[in-house]
Design goal:
Strand content: 5-15%
Helix content: 25-40%
Length: 112
């Protein structure tokens, strides 16, 4: 789970801190500023809906209601889901491979 301080700093540095949101399956530190939604689960690598988002898609974030909605119709999402290629781990042996086989998503604490 990547740390998102660099991308959020870039958005703020470009003057987009109040105009653009960062939506990610990554994590944030205490230095994060701007509109950010993290720990989206399931992650893109697991084929979660975050993997179906494409440039230009509209995403509605209602902070007060604590909701987030991808404004793409189900037919389009199903087509994208069918074309989604599974994430394949490049590491085949050693501790990192064992970790990759046993890790779970962030909502489960990322452990078995």
């Amino acid at each position: 789970m990547r740390e998102m301080l660099a991308p959020t700093s870039l958005l703020v540095g470009l003057g987009l801190g109040t105009k653009a949101a960062l939506i990610t399956d990554g994590r944030f530190s205490g230095g994060t500023r701007g509109i950010c939604v993290g720990h989206i689960c399931p992650e893109a690598a697991d084929g979660g809906n975050i993997a179906l988002i494409e440039n230009g898609d509209i995403i509605e974030i209602d902070i007060n209601k604590r909701t987030i909605e991808l404004k793409v119709d189900e037919k389009t999402l199903e087509k994208r889901r069918n074309n989604l290629k599974p994430h394949l781990c490049k590491v085949k042996s050693g501790y990192l491979a064992k970790y990759a086989r046993t890790v779970q998503d962030a909502s489960h604490g990322a452990i078995v």
